[in-house]
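Propose amino acids for all 212 sites.
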């Protein structure tokens, strides 16, 4: 599995590269700014990009804007944002463009190496991984169309937004797989989601939850 890293901190970049190399990944390029990242994406066939948010020259939102542009030029390119900050506007835009193969983790809240590596694999495989704090901040001051959901259904949907499958949701909430399946079905029904495959409906449900 080939990876491009966009990270301006050389120590963190090299640490990520070493971790990934030792875990069966192949780091195709380490880039430190949006321009070099764009060139690397064009030059390499990769399975996922891992990007920081705040990069030179302004240290505001260059990384997220670079990720959005990369997914525009290469639709479906899996991107895992790995940052200390939640940049709400561009994070919402990144997800609105299609939440399949997208992740957003906060550096200070990832406490285990295996948790990070699993997130990389999940996003590379087309899944979604969102830190619960990212979900919370994206929900701030957004009007919600989800008033028809029960509190339990909202809990299930919130965990779906974090990228959890039915089994993991059941373990989190201490309920059976059957109960999770029922709640997920109710979410789809109450959000008036079109009858299509369950994976696509989950994506639509998450976008509705985030108000996108």
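Proposal:
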């Amino acid at each position: 599995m080939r990876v491009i890293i966009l990270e301006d901190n050389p120590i963190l970049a090299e640490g990520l590269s070493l971790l990934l190399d030792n875990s069966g990944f192949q780091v195709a390029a380490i880039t430190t700014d949006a321009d070099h990242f764009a060139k690397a994406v064009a030059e390499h066939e990769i399975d996922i990009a891992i990007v920081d948010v705040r990069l030179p020259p302004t240290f505001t939102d260059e990384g997220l804007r670079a990720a959005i542009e990369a997914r525009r030029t290469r639709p479906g390119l899996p991107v895992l944002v790995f940052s200390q900050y939640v940049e709400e506007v561009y994070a919402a835009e990144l997800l609105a463009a299609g939440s399949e193969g997208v992740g957003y983790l906060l550096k200070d809240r990832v406490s285990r190496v295996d948790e990070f590596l699993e997130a990389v694999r999940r996003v590379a495989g087309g899944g979604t991984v969102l830190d619960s704090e990212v979900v919370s901040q994206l929900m701030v001051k957004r009007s919600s169309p989800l008033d028809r959901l029960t509190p339990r259904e909202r809990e299930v949907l919130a965990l779906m937004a974090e990228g959890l499958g039915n089994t993991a949701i059941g373990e989190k909430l201490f309920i059976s797989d059957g109960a999770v399946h029922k709640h997920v079905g109710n979410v789809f029904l109450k959000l008036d989601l079109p009858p299509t495959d369950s994976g696509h409906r989950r994506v639509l449900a998450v976008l509705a939850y985030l108000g996108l």
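The longest strand covers residues 26-31. Strands lie at 2-6, 26-31, 48-51, 79-83, 102-106, 128-130.
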